[in-house]
């Protein structure tokens, strides 16, 4: 990670944050928001790019701002210790002071974020914003640089912005928070997000907080199980192809497909013979049966 840490250290002004966020997003590092592509909920025949609040090292905004829950307050103290420990392991100077800066910045991010209740509103979280209007919606942040560096520019005319007030506050944070605080924040997330691939001391320190302190898990899974999970998460379809070649031959799949065919045939027969079902309901039931998608064992 020395090259990535050097990239963060080399940042000379906050005007470079957008390009740095773009790079870090592309390699899987946490930044104050996430970008992704999914079916447009108002037009599911098309995919849409969207941005949503993010950037916290703890699971939820409540961990930062609720002072009336002793457990959350305790976790907050443990988090501060964990941030300092990992930064120190990475040879960062003034690790404790940097950790304090990280927690303060993340607390400000948390205060600006929407609650879980607000996030469940599909109307309020659907805000179609033209790419050309993003800079005005988030004053102080160079969206056009970010979009160009992530490869989004030229592929769409708009983004679905999940939480407009959060992004306005984020723009204000870019302007008001010291550059040094942003650098500490990005160093921490770079190291934490890659801790699982670093030497054992990093793995253990990271697990102490995210496994034991946060979730109460006493011991980490054996290394081979973590290795299997990594392969499954990274190239799951490739692993699946090797698995079915050994354990699920075509004859087995054909047998299962025949079983499902028999089930569907029985359903169709039952539907046509139900006394309580009217003609229109029966028609709709048969149409639904005809549209059922079967995925047996693996995709074709």
Rg for CA atoms: 25 Å
Q: How many E strands?
A: 4
Largest sheet: 4 strands, mixed
* Shape type: globular
Mean pLDDT: 94
Count of helical stretches: 14
Tell me the strand percentage band. Answer: 5-15%
Helix content: 55-70%
Runs with pLDDT <50, length 5+?
none
Distance between the termini: 40 Å
Blueprint (SSEs and pairs):
Blueprint: H1 2-9, H2 17-26, E1 33-40, E2 43-53, H3 62-65, H4 70-89, H5 95-112, H6 116-119, E3 128-130, H7 134-137, H8 143-150, E4 158-161, H9 164-176, H10 179-193, H11 200-215, H12 223-247, H13 250-273, H14 279-291
Parallel strand pairs: 2-4
Antiparallel strand pairs: 1-2, 3-4
Helix pairs in contact: 1-10, 2-8, 4-5, 4-11, 5-10, 13-14
């Amino acid at each position: 990670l020395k090259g990535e840490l050097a990239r963060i250290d080399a940042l000379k002004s906050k005007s470079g944050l957008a390009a740095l966020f773009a790079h870090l997003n592309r390699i899987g590092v946490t930044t104050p928001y996430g970008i992704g592509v999914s079916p447009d909920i108002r037009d599911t025949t098309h995919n849409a790019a969207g941005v949503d609040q993010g950037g916290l090292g703890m699971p939820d905004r409540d961990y930062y701002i609720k002072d009336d829950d002793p457990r959350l307050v305790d976790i907050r103290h443990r988090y501060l210790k964990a941030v300092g420990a990992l930064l120190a392991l990475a040879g960062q100077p003034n690790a404790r002071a940097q950790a304090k800066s990280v927690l303060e910045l993340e607390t400000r991010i948390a205060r600006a974020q929407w609650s879980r209740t607000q996030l469940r509103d599909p109307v309020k979280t659907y805000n179609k914003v033209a790419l050309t209007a993003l800079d005005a919606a988030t004053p102080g942040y160079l969206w056009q640089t970010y979009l160009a560096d992530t490869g989004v520019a030229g592929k769409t005319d708009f983004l679905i912005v999940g939480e407009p007030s959060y992004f306005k506050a984020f723009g204000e944070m870019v302007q008001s928070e010291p550059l040094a605080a942003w650098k500490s924040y990005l160093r921490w997330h770079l190291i934490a997000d890659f801790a699982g691939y670093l030497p054992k001391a990093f793995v253990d320190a990271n697990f102490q907080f995210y496994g034991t302190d946060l979730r109460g898990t006493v011991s980490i899974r054996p290394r081979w199980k973590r290795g299997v999970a990594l392969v499954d998460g990274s190239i799951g379809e490739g692993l699946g192809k090797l698995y079915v070649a050994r354990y699920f031959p075509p004859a087995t799949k054909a047998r299962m497909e025949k079983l499902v065919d028999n089930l569907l045939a029985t359903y169709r027969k039952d539907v046509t013979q139900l006394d309580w079902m009217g003609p229109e309901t029966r028609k709709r039931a048969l149409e639904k049966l005809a549209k059922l998608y079967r995925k047996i064992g693996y995709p074709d």
